[in-house]
Write a structure and sequence with these properties.
The chain has one domain. Helices cover 23% and strands 34% of the residues. The protein is built from eight helices and 23 strands. The strands form six sheets. Strands 1, 2, 3, 4, 5, 12, 13, 14, 15, 19, 22 and 23 form a twelve-stranded mixed beta sheet that branches. Strands 16-18-17 form a three-stranded antiparallel beta sheet, covered by helices on one side. A two-stranded antiparallel ribbon has the order 6-7. Strand 14 and strand 15 form a beta hairpin. Helix 4 runs antiparallel to helix 8. The longest helix has 16 residues.
Length: 363
């Protein structure tokens, strides 16, 4: 295994939005006031979209634009879970799951196994899967002055009904990583975090064309490697590339009827790396007055130099025309001249070019 991962970084640019709300605004005297999600750092306020919300947008975009059949959700009294079937449902594969339970034990012919009293035997069918796709929250790059937007419902007799929502404009950053080796590859041995498939799903996967491969990291007591179940290469390539291509169309966020915001990337970096640590965290920041977006060219150059041995293939940078100013564009052009493996394109061109290249690295 090469242990390769996509390391991605995005910037979105939104105006007068309320992308992810936090419930009732207790600081307002209005009973119908809603607060947006925000966090403080060094005494300054930053708005953010939770990582869970971003994943919700992502999953729905894959359903709408790539016809993914999403894993059905079962809701019980205090828990909810998906089908936990990554063979049939690509989102279970890419986004992970946890499902606890027991079921009747079956023999090789599919008959229920009973004990000496004639009662059906049960077995633990708890399965878990760590998501191959990991992502940060989407956080404003600079501190943000959140405004309270006053509105009212007045299309009725009598007094209008006022309500308040918090709104903001911001450039926001997010990061993600997608593990090539883990996507479409499942452990089946009985160990916490490694039991991805039930015996029935393992059998179904192998019958449908999946193959078994050696786990390079985990061994049995005998010293032999544990066995992993891996789906066909074309299935894995499809799931990985469509997950990344979904960023071209991603949409979502609260208050879309009145505060519609475009959450597709206006800037994106896509790279393949041998490390799980994300290198692009500090390539953007704020100016001296703390409210001005600054692109850190020297920071990006430092990353390219420091991690040159961990990058595999080309690094694709996509920029929406008009997003960066002239000096930032010139700075990026100098980087592409200095580093021949850095390719600067439009957003969609960068995503497509990267997805075409990454297929060379999927076994």
């Amino acid at each position: 295994m090469q242990n390769l991962k996509t390391q991605g970084f995005i910037l979105i640019d939104v105006d007068v939005v309320a992308l992810n709300n936090a419930g009732k605004d207790n600081s307002s005297t209005n009973e119908n006031a809603v607060a947006t999600k925000k966090v403080t750092k060094n005494g300054r306020t930053f708005t953010y979209v939770s990582g869970q919300a971003w994943r919700y947008w992502w999953r729905n975009t894959l359903e709408k634009h790539f016809n993914w059949s999403l894993s059905p959700i079962t809701r019980e009294s205090k828990v909810a879970f998906t089908a936990a079937d990554p063979i049939q449902y690509a989102d279970d594969d890419i986004f992970g799951y946890m499902r606890a339970g027991t079921s009747e034990k079956l023999d090789e012919k599919g008959n229920v196994v009973v004990d000496n009293k004639g009662k059906p035997k049960t077995e633990n069918v708890t399965v878990t899967r760590i998501s191959p796709l990991k992502n940060s929250a989407i956080v404003s790059v600079t501190s943000v002055q959140v405004e309270k937007g006053f509105s009212s419902m007045a299309r009725h007799d009598g007094d209008s009904v006022p309500y308040v929502k918090e709104e903001y404009s911001a450039i926001m950053k997010g990061m993600f990583a997608l593990d090539f080796e883990q996507a479409g590859t499942f452990a089946t041995y009985n160990k916490t975090g490694f039991k991805n498939l039930t015996e029935l799903l393992q059998k179904a996967a192998l019958e449908s064309g999946a193959k078994q491969i050696n786990d390079p990291f985990v061994k049995k007591e005998s010293g032999e490697p544990q066995q992993l179940v891996r789906l066909a290469r074309e299935t894995r390539v499809k799931r990985i590339t469509e997950t990344i291509k979904a960023l071209k169309f991603i949409s979502g966020g609260a208050m879309q009827t009145n505060n519609m915001g475009d959450v597709t990337p206006k800037f994106i970096i896509l790279s393949t790396m041998t490390t799980g640590n994300h290198p692009f965290t500090h390539i953007v920041g704020s100016g001296v007055e703390k409210r001005t977006f600054v692109f850190n060219h020297d920071g990006l150059k430092e990353v390219l130099e420091d991690y040159k041995d961990q990058f595999v293939g080309n690094i694709y940078i996509g920029v929406r025309n008009g997003f960066l100013d002239r000096l930032d564009e010139e700075g990026l052009s100098k980087l592409t001249e200095a580093f021949k493996n850095v390719k600067k394109l439009s957003i969609n061109e960068a995503i497509d070019a990267y997805c075409n290249e990454l297929q060379n690295y999927i076994e």
